[in-house]
Specification:
With 247 residues, this protein is mostly beta strands. The protein contains 1 helix and 18 strands.
């Protein structure tokens, strides 16, 4: 018997789960290292969707690790920034910031970053276009990716800089530099139509291998890392986002 695929049966469109961090109580912490993915290295790729709900003009932390060794934030100037020390903490070895500012009025924003400090390469694409400010730092040193206590949605020490935003599809790969200047690579995270792309059940769809962190679940389990390399613990209570970037 020959099976015939019905061309009129369409694959359902991917709908990203959005979760809300309320800017007051909510954030996530992890007190031990990830159990997989590079804990140190020279390359990385990060992607997420964010829709700010308040706090314009105030620094808001997204990904953060102990002692400020590395973090991603939206600064008090409303610009996206990623910053990392090398493993001994003596030298800032990765630092790049967006040219444009992003506020509540921006709505859903897709942020993708990639770096290879050995090659001196840094990339930041926001809503599908390069938006990295000039003169980034990229020194050929080994970066720290998982130092003691780590957090998402606030700084790890006292929960300062809390995030007031809906978030969807956080992906952090510490093993691979994905060249975002190649349209097909960027479209592994943001489609040509400007929508989220399914990252796989364990986050392996973009490269074929699991990233260190992949957070795509509904709000009740969003803290669970789909790569299997360890989960966060929630402080406060995440709720469903008011909309999805897939809409």
């Amino acid at each position: 018997m020959i099976s015939v695929v019905n061309p009129h049966i369409l694959t359902p469109a991917y709908i990203a789960n959005a979760v809300n961090f309320d800017g007051t109580n909510d954030y996530m912490r992890r007190a031990t290292d990830w159990t997989g993915g590079a804990l140190t290295g020279k390359v990385g790729t990060l992607s997420l969707w964010v829709n700010f709900k308040g706090g314009d003009g105030a620094a808001q932390k997204l990904w953060h690790q102990d002692g400020g060794y590395g973090y991603m934030e939206r600064t008090s100037a409303n610009k996206f920034r990623i910053f990392m020390y090398e493993t001994t903490g003596g030298t800032i070895s990765l630092d790049m910031i967006s040219t444009s500012s992003y506020t509540v009025a921006s709505g859903w924003v897709h942020v993708a970053m990639a770096w290879d400090v050995a090659a001196g390469t840094t990339q930041m694409y926001i809503n599908g276009a390069s938006d990295r400010a000039g003169s980034p730092t990229a020194l050929n040193n080994t970066l720290e990716y998982a130092r003691e206590t780590m957090s998402f949605g606030a700084d790890q020490a006292g929960g300062g800089g809390k995030l007031n935003a809906d978030i969807a599809d956080f992906y952090f790969n510490t093993d691979a530099f994905i060249d975002l200047s190649v349209a097909a690579n960027l479209q592994k995270f943001r489609s040509a139509a400007g929508k989220p792309v399914f990252l796989g059940l364990d986050g392996s769809a973009p490269t074929g291998a699991k990233p260190q962190i992949c957070l795509t679940n509904p709000f009740g389990t969003w803290h669970q890392n789909l790569s299997g390399y360890g989960d966060y613990t929630v402080t406060g209570a995440l709720t469903a986002g008011s909309s999805s970037p897939s809409a």
